[in-house]
Predict the 3D structure of the following.
Amino acid sequence: MPIDYVIPFVDCSDGNWLVEYKKYVSAKIDWSNNATRFRDWETLRYQLRSIERYMPWIRDIYIVMSVSESQIPKWLNTQHERVHIVWDWEIVPQEYLPIFNSNVIDLYIPHIEGLSEHYLYACDDYIVMRSLKPEDFFTENGIKLKMGKYKLMDWTYTRTIINSNLLICPQHVTKIDTYFLALYCDHAIVPHLKSENLKVMEMYHQEIEESLSRFRESKNLTWLIYPLSLMKNGLLQKGNIKTRFSALRDENSIRALDFAGCDVIALNDEYRDNFLVGKSHLIGRLEEVLPCKSEFEKQR
């Protein structure tokens, strides 16, 4: 069973990207379009090291980028036969380019040319900490994923989760006072079946198109529609991978990072101090647990 791994990546310090961002961003900058949401902590390098070490059965790695080749990290070995750079313009409708909305990019990942039927998707700040196997993610004809009911306030990010539930399985959405109960798989490496996702794209073509926007908006749908559809069709079993969510809030939170006792650690950017100092500290901590270069890095 060939299994690929898909990773979205963006670096807001890239001058070419910033020019395009400033051209399209509205005068009012909020959480959904603030450039700091696109900061590169260099976690991609360590994510690839962790894949090589703990998931050697991964076939190809697809890294989805935007705007220009100046986004490609200088350390990345793009000549490696298993590394594929995918540009958003290859998969996303042209009228939304350049795109600064991961919700839209995620929806069109099944259009990646050459992508295997079975693939995993994770943001670039998910680091694998233990050996994992294909059967941790896939069954004979479906996927394994820890899905649960979450209490969600109604704001931009959570509204997109609610929208996805309402489209695929509205019977699982409950409104209670100022919040919703809805299904979600919070901070997980998500397994996908490409053929099933393409069916969802075709079935809900109009709803998906109406949800699109260049920047995140509360009308968006998310990749969640795909595992929800698999659940609806009896193709989803409960997974048992343990993911630890760790917020990078300040230097103390980076010093306190605990890499033990979990399968995957998700490093969420909530940093308010000096970013470059914090990034240096984080790289130091990641070097402690993943010090060896991977074959996906340039060796010089």
Summary: The radius of gyration is 19 Å.
